[in-house]
Design a protein that fits this description.
Length: 191
């Protein structure tokens, strides 16, 4: 159990909800800002399958949301154990929005999921893998100086309602988008 989860469990033990949190699947959340802005550098999202789930291949199911909480793009990228994948915010994650509106600000959600017949289809269903995590780091472009900072993406816990909502929204993009709304997987493992 990681130290953040241990501290959270101690604080939540009084309320009896620690076991519920542990039963939910881990996923990552991060933001992007100043993307696709003239003169600003491109941001990146880096992903790694840390091998915690018995060194098996995983899919990094990626969901991109605009600042109005609407899903703009989604995709699924193969992640082999200990491999590094690099995605461009401008080219891979925001260049093909469902609505045609190129994003400058928003969030990513990354779910570790099981491959389907050794492939990572667009996630209209999500099958999580016990104890599996995709580690993620994102660069953030600071508008005032175009300074680039990088930090680990935040660990969160995927409720069954959120899992279903992500899959349904991505499935709808796949059904009605005619190819729009599907992000690409950048470079790295399993490309």
């Amino acid at each position: 159990m990681n130290s953040r989860l241990a501290v959270s469990c101690l604080l939540l033990a009084f309320f009896g909800i620690c076991s519920m949190i542990q039963a939910q699947s881990a996923y990552r959340v991060d933001y992007f800002a100043n993307a696709n802005t003239a003169g600003a550098p491109d941001g990146t999202l880096r992903l790694d399958n840390d091998g915690a789930a018995a060194s098996v291949d995983l899919c990094a199911d990626i969901f991109v949301f605009d600042s109005n909480e609407e899903m703009s793009e989604c995709c699924s990228c193969l992640e082999t154990p200990d491999g590094l994948r690099t995605l461009s915010v401008s080219t891979d994650l925001t260049a093909n929005p469902l609505t045609g509106v190129i994003l400058t600000t928003g969030i990513f959600k990354i779910v570790a999921a099981a491959p389907y017949h050794d492939t990572c289809p667009i996630p209209s269903t999500i099958t999580t893998v016990s104890k599996a995590e995709i580690q993620a780091w994102a660069t953030h472009i600071q508008r005032s100086s175009n300074t680039i900072t990088e930090a680990a993406s935040q660990l969160s816990y995927l409720s069954s309602n959120e899992q279903m909502r992500l899959a349904q929204q991505c499935g709808a993009i796949r059904s009605v988008g005619s190819g729009a709304g599907i992000c690409s997987c950048g470079t790295g493992t399993g490309s």
